[in-house]
Amino acid sequence: MFYNLKAEIARRGWKDRDLAKAAGMSVSALSQKINGKSDFKRSEMIALRKALGCEEIILDKLFEEADTEA
Q1: Are the beta carbons of 22 and 31 closer than 8 angstroms?
Q2: In 30, 41, 48, 62, which residue has its Cα 20 to 30 A from 10's Cα atom?
């Protein structure tokens, strides 16, 4: 899961559907990618960062995957 991305979405008070619409993605595609079921394309990462208005955040940081092993 992409906790930094989810945090930026929450800071803005958005739902995933709001971000998907702003970035020109389907809600289903965004959900699958956030939940690690498919990979983000670089162009999608850039579009999402721009839609969130957080261009100052490095892509690698915004899309850093959390370690899911306990």
Answers
A1: no
A2: 41
